[in-house]
């Protein structure tokens, strides 16, 4: 049983990356275009992509989430996304209290740590990076490659 779970690990990691990337991209899409999420509806409001910090955050969410969804540039996208969520947590939520359940910063804290995990583990077994890299090229370090 344990060997099956370990063999499935890189594929489950890919599924995790896809789901987290999709959800993160949806936040950015909703903020920029006002068609999904809390920004949707008759009184839909959008953010200017060049406004600091909300517009920049929405662009990072859309682009970073999309790259993670595809598994292309995953570590870089995850690092930038993790940093943006850490900034969001400490700039927006932490002044209202340090505990995420009390200050509304649960999703920012979760995304920050989820992206940091992806920085360390890589995109998993199923990714555009893996598909596009040359067969004779240098192997990308993933969880299974780090094991030996």
Please write out the topology.
Layout: H1 2-33, H2 54-70, H3 74-93, H4 100-103, H5 106-121, H6 128-132, H7 143-147
Describe the structure.
This is DoxX family protein. It is a multi-pass membrane protein. Belongs to the DoxX family. By secondary structure, this protein is mainly alpha-helical. The protein has one domain (2-13, 52-147). Helix content is 67%, strand content 0%. The protein is built from seven helices and no strands. Helix 1 (2-33) packs antiparallel against helix 2 (54-70), helix 1 packs across helix 5 and helix 2 packs antiparallel against helix 3. The protein is globular, with a radius of gyration of 17 Å. The mean pLDDT is 87.
What is the percentage of strand-forming residues?
A: under 5%
Number of strands: 0
Uncertain residue segments: none
End-to-end gap: 21 Å
* The number of domains: 1
Q: Helicity range of the residues?
A: 55-70%
Give the integer mean of the pLDDT values: 87
**Alpha carbon gyration radius:** 17 Å
């Amino acid at each position: 049983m344990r060997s099956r779970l370990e063999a499935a690990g890189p594929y489950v990691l890919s599924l995790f990356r896809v789901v987290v990337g999709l959800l993160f991209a949806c936040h950015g899409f909703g903020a920029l275009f006002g068609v999904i999420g809390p920004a949707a509806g008759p009184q839909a409001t959008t953010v200017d992509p060049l406004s600091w910090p909300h517009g920049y955050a929405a662009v990072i969410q859309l682009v970073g989430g999309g790259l993670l969804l595809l598994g292309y540039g995953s570590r870089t996208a995850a690092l930038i996304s993790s940093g943006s969520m850490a900034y969001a947590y400490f700039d927006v939520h932490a002044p209202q209290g340090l505990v995420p359940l009390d200050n509304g910063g649960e999703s920012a804290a979760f995304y920050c740590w989820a992206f940091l995990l992806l920085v360390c583990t890589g995109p998993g077994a199923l990714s555009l990076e893996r598909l596009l890299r040359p067969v004779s090229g240098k192997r990308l370090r993933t969880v299974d490659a780090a094991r030996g």
